[in-house]
Sequence to fold (79 residues):
Amino acid sequence: MEILEIDARVDLQPIECARIVLVLTGHGKLVVDGAAQRFHAPCSLVLPAGIDSQVVNIGAELMQLVTGFTPAAAVSPPP
Fold:
C-alpha cells in the first residue's frame, strides 16, 4: 500500500507487464502521454505494459493506493 500526501505525485516507470492500481481513498489524476484523466476512489486504474504514467493527488485528503501486476508474457525458447 502506498499513501500519497496532498499535492504529491508518483511517477510509474514502464515495466514489461500490465499494472493495476486500486485507489482506495482520495481523488486525483492519471497522466499518460501528456493526457490527464481524473478519477475518484474507489476505482481501479489499468495501465498497459510499457507506458510512462503519473498519478497525482489533487484532492484535499490522503490518497491510498494498492498496486498489482499481471504476469509478464511467457517467452517460449526457440525450437
Notes: DSSP finds no helices and eight strands in the chain. The chain has one domain: 2-69. The longest strand covers residues 19-25.
